[in-house]
Amino acid sequence: MGIFNFINDQLLKMVWLSKLVKYLVENVFGLSVKGRIGGSIHFFIYDTIKIFILLSILIFIVSYIQSYFPPEKTKKILGHIKGIKGNIFGALLGTITPFCSCSSIPLFIGFTSAGLPIGVTFSFLISSPLVDLASFLLLMSFFGPKIAIAYVVVGLVLAVIGGTLIDKMNLEGYVEGYVREIENVDIEVPEMTRKERMDYAKDQVKEIIGRVWLYILIGVGIGATIHNWIPQNVIEKIIGSDNPFAVILATIVGVPMYADIFGTLPIAEALFMKGVGVGTILSFMMAVTALSLPSMIMLSKVVKPKLLGIFVSIVTLGIIIIGYLFNAISYLFI
Amino acid sequence: MIIKILGSGCANCKKLEENTKKAVEELGIGAEIQKVEDFKEIMKYGVMRTPALVVDEKVKSFGKVLTVEEVKNILKG
């Protein structure tokens, strides 16, 4: 346990960085970190540096691993698996296949033209933005192993159940006609050398940081504001355990938002410190990452409104159920 | 030589197009560069990640913004 605690505290939570920033705030700025201004400055500097360090390292490692699982390969693997197993593998492969919402259209068309049931594709599309190794380790850093593991498990379950429901509802006819006309073409994916994988991982770090840095700063800014400026009782009234609609509110606010988990973490962290329920926080993070306006607009180019509506409803409902469930059993996590 | 850039007009696709134009210029070869933005056409090549570079109907690279040097190496064969 000793080594595990050390890794979690110093490498993931970066307790040393927190102390260093505290020293800086107290001795250079001359502000107490217990005060409002000092506290927000500490939160902002510490969280920003922590997230950028973790993010760069994690994206590098994760991208290196992901380079072994290109979507072209995933498509071939999934083509051979039938039934609910297909949904399970779809959800699992979603966690390790490199994915960004900008490539969801070719991915959707590729999977569909290869004859995959749409439910399997949706299992993949739900788990892909929601769960990956980087988000798991980041959650571990912010909330500890229990919540991180719980998040991954419920994320995968949501992906499997969501996809299976879509399969059962026989919605194949609600895929845009032109998608069906496209013939499946399997392409040879050239084996990458180690150097190519390293280069790929480096490029990914640059690209992803370039894409998300602003969201992270906004997220940390909101987090610092919640942490130090909004009184506890206001937060409790809006999304605290006294409000029975807290989970629904957190989900509905989160759905249209476009940010990935890295931007939402500081907000979630601040809410967590203010005593907001674990379930409410998980719902918010899942809603932000799994669904967003841009990804819905993308998907609307390949599926008809009815299927899109059902997909969004199932995922939203699932996230709300997860939220209430976790709030009910939250004593297990704190 | 016909070079096609596959991609739906994202920033990366434009970057690859620029780099390809430069590579063609620097090599001084006569090549026609076409942009393919329609997903129906793109998917015919089996590509699931854009941007992709197609030379004389053969997919040379996909899911990557090649540098000018890399494009040159591909064009030289």
What structural keywords apply?
heterodimer, A: 334 residues, mainly alpha, 17 helices, globular, B: 77 residues, alpha+beta, 3 helices
Q: What would you say about this model in short?
A:
The complex is a heterodimer of chains A (334) and B (77). Chain A is mainly alpha-helical and 334 residues long.
Descriptive account of the structure:
The complex is a heterodimer of chains A (334) and B (77). With 334 residues, chain A is mainly α. Chain A has one domain (70-183, 213-332). Helices cover 75% and strands 0% of the residues of chain A. Chain A contains 17 helices and no strands. Chain A has helices spanning 2-12, 15-28, 36-66, 71-79, 84-96, 104-113, 118-130, 133-143, 145-168, 177-181, 194-228, 232-239, 246-254, 261-273, 278-290, 293-299, 305-328. In chain A, α3 packs antiparallel against α11 and α11 runs parallel beside α14 (261-273). The two termini of chain A are 18 Å apart. Chain B is an alpha+beta fold. Chain B has a single domain, classed as Glutaredoxin. In chain B, β1 (2-6), α1 and β2 (32-36) form a beta-alpha-beta unit. In chain B, α1 (11-27) packs across α3 (68-76). The mean pLDDT of chain B is 88. Chain A binds chain B through residues 70-72, 75, 102-103, 105-107, 109-110, 113, 178, 181-187, 200, 203, 301, and chain B through 8, 10, 39-40, 42-50, 59, 62-65.
Strand arrangement in the largest pleated sheet of chain B: 2-1-3-4
- Our count of helices of chain A gives 17
Summarize the amount of helix of chain A as a percent range: over 70%
Q: List the secondary-structure elements of chain B in sequence, H or E.
A: EHEHEEH
Beta strand count of chain B: 4
